[in-house]
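Issue 218. Parser rejects a valid record. Input:
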Amino acid sequence: MEAGGYQIHLNLSLNLNLLCALLYHAFLKNEVSMAGILEVTTRLAAARSVAVLTGAGISADSGVPTFRGADGLWRNFRAEDLATPEAFERDPRLVWEWYNWRRELIATKKPNPAHDAVAAMERRFSRFWLITQNVDGLHRDAGSTKLSEIHGNIWKVRCTACGRIDDNRQVPIPILPTCTICHKLVRPHIVWFGESLATEDLAKSYEALESCDVMLIIGTSGVVYPAASFAPAAKSAGAFVVEINLDTSPSPGVVDVALQGRAKDIVPLLLS
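Output the parser choked on:
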């Protein structure tokens, strides 16, 4: 089987760098199953199409907080109190002040080796699609272009009147920000609680999932819909499903290999 211009033989020799990395993880840190990583690298070597789903766990290694629970508490407000259409209609200034706080935090963060490895996968596989639940934009910063940001992007704004979507990297963003075309109020281009995901993003995501040979789930338990339906969709179409997460898999009947550990440590090994 050809992969990246070199021959990989099942049950035969691995390149020295991968072997050393596997031994380090398996025997010194005792975090990752060597057999599991060997299986995944073999599957990726044979794959023609790959789909990746990422969540908060991949960006946690860059220092991005989850903005849920204690991480999301700001002026005694919870994320669930502010990330709603009703909250924005009631007090857009307050909501934008909260998003300014979030933007200032995220602006200091950089992609980590897991983000870089996912971007490298896009370059390796001609049929590749990334589905991310994260809004921090770190996948784009790492070079990913074939992706659906199903929950939106904190560095984009959307006009509440004409619907225009613009990139905006101002930190802090002037409050209240207005549309560059019609000068009406803009909002963060984020899917808020109570809102539906974009139909186009979901369609592209399911198209990729139902045609991939390998699906990687990185840094998310994927238990909230619609993400909870992604792995079963890929599995039912014949994909080999891999989960990489700090926690044990909540879907053992769907996941073929579960690699427990930090995304920044494991994902780069899959490209060795």
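Fixed in the parser; the record now loads. Residues 92-107 form the longest helix (16 residues).
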